[in-house]
């Protein structure tokens, strides 16, 4: 009965039969090193039903209570001796040479290297390959280096579920993979030990898919901010001596943020329109898109989230606008001027409608954009069907873009037709920002025409034009000539099903 208490409650279906008969003595895993990763790894292994012994150079320096009571703390030699086959190397690679004295004790065991690279552009061999050279009688498996200590403590429910493994031994990878499954993770075989360098560099990448979108957003903000500064602050100061540099902190930022959000949202849907145009022009979907378009399509989610960030910041800045000192002074001066001129309640019907429509379309656009941002999260998107996800990201996405364009156009109202709006022959920032979104919406409406949408749908279902696939058309003619009439109809139906 005591042995049954050490069997984990949750087992993977692939190793249920074997795990029931595993005893703690036969499933003892050694961990060399007593750092944070070692403590988290030991905690997860104990929770999965393994016996764990931690080997340290100096056991006395380990504080009481740092490890679970079920974890045995011992010297490195004793830890290796008690391990059945698996030994985790949870120490920095520069300390690997200090284990050369354990070469005979580690012979025949599987060494799981969990280290990461120090630099991205290092020309040295991977840590795992160096470890395999130091211990030729052992089998080295690279893995668990992309799993954080937090994920090990909380389990696979919170964090990355994949454990990437590489080794020159298929048996060793299988054994480590079975251990990862019992810990609640999904092992992924990425090849031989030659792939270890890529795995070691993987945790060093800092948001690789966000670099282009972040740079694009920053350049857009820099452009609109500099444009607004030159048009609204610098040139009036040089020409008329008007000092309005106080606008640099809030006003100019609040004017630039919606422009960036609008253009970024248009850039989310522009590559899809390019892809549709290429498919219509080529008459087939079986030709690869250019690399720049592929990269652009893969970065749409990041651009959309950055657009939502800029729109949310614009909303917060707008709510803070009445709290400013300059706003209160302007209200006081306007009220004083009205009292002095004897005006009790000035009413501007046009301005009232413009303001209400402007605020309403902006709030609705931000609300739909918030829904797009929420469904972009993996935890939310994974529970949606493909049709639901497409409806939200495409259908509601264009609705958000339309509302944002309405928000901008209602703001402009008739200002675009006034010569006073073109100070120093420069149009307002929002007129520059609305050009690309309007072009995207116009082209989207063109794709919705029945004649165009029907052809695009046929292409995406596999149909190809005769100039792209003449052999299939010639083959159809030959079939119609040689096959009896009853079979011709069947062959034609099948061919239509293939070509769309």
Which structural category fits the helices and strands?
Answer: alpha/beta
Q: How many strand units? A: 8
Oligomer: single chain
SSE topology string: HEHEEHEEHEHEHEHHHHHHHHHHHHHH
CATH architecture of the largest domain: Up-down Bundle
Instruction: Indicate the percent of residues in helices.
Output: 55-70%
Regions with little confidence, pLDDT below 50 for 5+ residues? 1-25, 472-477, 482-500
Mean pLDDT: 84
Instruction: Supply the number of structural domains.
Output: 2
Radius of gyration: 33 Å
Looking at CATH, which topology of the largest domain would you report?
Answer: Four Helix Bundle (Hemerythrin (Met), subunit A)
Largest sheet: 6 strands, parallel
| Strand order in the sheet with the most strands | 3-2-1-4-5-6
Distance between the termini: 64 Å
Q: How many helices in DSSP terms?
A: 20
Sheet-strand content, in percent, reads: 5-15%
CATH class placement of the largest domain: Mainly Alpha
């Amino acid at each position: 009965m005591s042995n049954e208490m050490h069997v984990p409650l949750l087992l993977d279906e692939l190793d249920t039969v074997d795990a029931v008969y595993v005893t703690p003595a036969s499933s003892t895993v050694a961990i060399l090193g007593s750092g944070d990763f070692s403590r988290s790894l030991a905690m997860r292994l104990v929770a999965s039903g393994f016996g764990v012994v931690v080997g340290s150079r100096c056991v006395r320096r380990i504080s009481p209570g740092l490890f679970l009571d079920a974890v045995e703390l011992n010297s490195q030699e004793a830890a290796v001796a008690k391990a059945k086959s698996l030994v985790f190397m949870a120490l920095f690679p520069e300390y690997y040479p200090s284990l050369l004295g354990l070469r005979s004790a580690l012979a025949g065991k599987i060494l799981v290297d969990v280290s990461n690279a120090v630099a991205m552009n290092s020309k040295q061999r991977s840590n795992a390959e160096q470890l395999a050279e130091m211990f030729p009688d052992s089998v080295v498996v690279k893995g668990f280096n992309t799993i954080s200590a937090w994920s090990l403590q909380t389990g696979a429910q919170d964090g990355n579920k994949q454990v990437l493994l590489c080794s020159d031994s298929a048996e060793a990878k299988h054994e480590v993979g079975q251990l990862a499954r019992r810990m609640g993770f999904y092992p992924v075989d990425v090849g031989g030990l030659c792939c270890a360098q890529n795995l070691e560099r993987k945790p060093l990448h800092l948001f690789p898919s966000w670099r282009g979108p972040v740079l694009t957003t920053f350049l857009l903000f820099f452009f609109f901010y500099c444009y607004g500064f030159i048009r609204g602050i610098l040139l009036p100061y040089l020409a008329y001596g008007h000092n309005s540099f106080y606008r640099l902190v809030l006003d100019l930022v609040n004017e630039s943020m919606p422009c960036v959000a609008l253009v970024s949202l248009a850039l989310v849907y522009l590559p899809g329109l390019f892809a549709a145009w290429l498919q219509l022009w080529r008459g087939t979907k079986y030709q690869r898109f250019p690399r720049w378009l592929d990269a652009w399509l893969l970065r749409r989610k990041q651009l959309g989230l950055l657009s939502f960030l800029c729109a949310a910041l614009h909303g917060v800045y707008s709510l803070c606008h009445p709290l400013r000192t300059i706003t209160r002074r302007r209200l006081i001066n306007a009220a004083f001027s009205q009292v002095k001129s004897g005006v009790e309640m000035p009413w501007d019907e046009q301005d009232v409608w413009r303001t209400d429509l402007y605020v309403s379309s902006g709030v609705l656009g931000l609300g739909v954009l918030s829904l797009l941002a929420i469904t972009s999260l993996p935890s939310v998107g994974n529970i949606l069907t493909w049709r639901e996800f497409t409806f939200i990201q495409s259908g509601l996405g264009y609705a958000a873009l339309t509302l944002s364009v309405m928000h901008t156009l209602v703001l402009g109202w008739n200002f675009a037709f006034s010569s006073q709006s073109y100070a120093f022959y420069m149009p307002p920032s929002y007129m520059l920002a609305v050009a690309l979104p309007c072009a995207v919406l116009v082209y989207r409406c063109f794709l919705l025409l029945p004649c165009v949408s029907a052809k695009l749908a046929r292409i995406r279902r596999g149909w190809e034009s005769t100039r792209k696939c003449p052999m299939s058309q010639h083959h159809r003619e030959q079939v119609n000539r040689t096959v009896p009439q009853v079979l011709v109809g069947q062959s034609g139906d099948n061919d239509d099903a293939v070509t769309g």
